[in-house]
Write a structure and sequence with these properties.
single chain, 305 residues, alpha/beta, 3 domains, 13 strands, disordered C terminus, P-loop_NTPase, ABC_transporter-like_ATP-bd, ABC transporter ATP-binding protein
């Protein structure tokens, strides 16, 4: 099986509004896939369709080679799912809750559950209703990871977690990837996706507008460049240099700042006509790329490569 998830022309409408519009996407077996978008973009709608919690208006989806509608019971045994609004019985203690959920999955060794609780700093003797939002989220993470599923589907998994536990979560994802599990993770937190994802899809208003590796998304994005000169230079020299975007000089005329698209070769050659005393380029973070796709014009539907 080359793909853990295959989605073709998937659409979901809610009355007159559209939650998902013609989504086509493959998630490869064994990869960590980051699914990015703000609230309301269609991330949770996609996940609910994959799990047959809601039904599509049109289009198809297969998960682990199975049809979510007709093979739901068999499929759920092989998936670890964390909902964006994880809720369980508040009267239970953490240990009782996790044992119950483990039993539903056919049994999970108690040491495995205890080890995950310990790793996340979760008190197994506490009642669910006494827990903070962050600690309730830890319960959700334990139940998703504890049976070592083939596929983890995680909807905003770090919601409410403090930074130290967020780091532990990323380590759990990395461990899962090393063991060959597939992780489909929706988020609007760019840094956590950038840290672990093999590929990223960016969703805008129910439409996929970018799909690539983090490295290739960066390579196609505009970087920032700053060049320091020993003496003032004329801005006119750099306005038509290939690759420079919106160049401008500081008041002294000795520092040139601009965006950089593609190779810096022409820029370096133009700058070399003067005495260069400093040159720095800054790679864009994933959040900059994300916000650029939400800024307007360049957002266009994409399909899986």
């Amino acid at each position: 099986m080359n793909n853990a998830i295959e989605i073709r022309d998937l659409t979901k409408t809610y009355g007159t509004s559209r939650g998902l519009s013609g989504l086509t996407l493959d998630v490869r077996a064994g990869e960590v896939f980051g699914y990015l978008g703000p609230n309301g973009a269609g991330k949770s709608t996609t996940i609910r369709l994959l799990l047959d919690l809601i039904r599509p208006t049109s289009g198809t989806a297969t998960v682990l080679g199975l049809d979510p509608r007709h093979d739901g019971v068999a499929l759920r045994r092989r998936i670890g799912y964390l909902a964006g609004d994880f809720v369980v019985d508040g009267g239970q203690r953490v240990r009782e809750c996790l044992r119950f959920l483990a039993h539903l999955r056919g049994g999970v060794p108690q040491p495995r559950i205890d080890a995950l609780c310990d790793r996340l700093g979760l008190d197994p003797t506490a009642t669910i209703k006494s827990l903070s939002k962050g600690n309730r989220q830890k319960v959700g993470l334990v139940q998703a990871f504890m049976h070592t599923p083939e596929l983890l589907i995680l909807d905003e998994p770090t919601s409410g977690l403090d930074p130290l536990v967020q780091q532990t979560f990323l380590e759990l994802v990395a461990d899962a990837a090393r063991s060959g599990q597939t992780v489909f993770m929706s988020s609007h937190i760019m840094d956590e996706v950038e840290a672990v994802a093999d590929r990223v899809g960016i969703l805008r208003d129910g439409t996929l507008v970018a799909l690539d590796t983090v490295a290739d998304l960066r390579a196609s994005a505009i970087r920032r460049i700053e060049i320091g000169f020993a003496d003032p230079v004329a801005l006119a020299e750099f306005r038509t240099v290939p690759g420079l975007v919106e160049p401008h000089l500081d008041p002294s005329g000795t520092i040139l700042r601009a965006g950089l698209s593609g190779t810096p070769d022409a820029v370096v050659k133009a700058a070399a006509r003067h005495t260069v005393i400093a040159l720095t380029t800054t790679e864009p973070h994933l959040d900059e790329i994300f916000h650029r796709h939400y800024a307007g014009a360049e957002a266009a539907p994409r399909t899986a490569a």
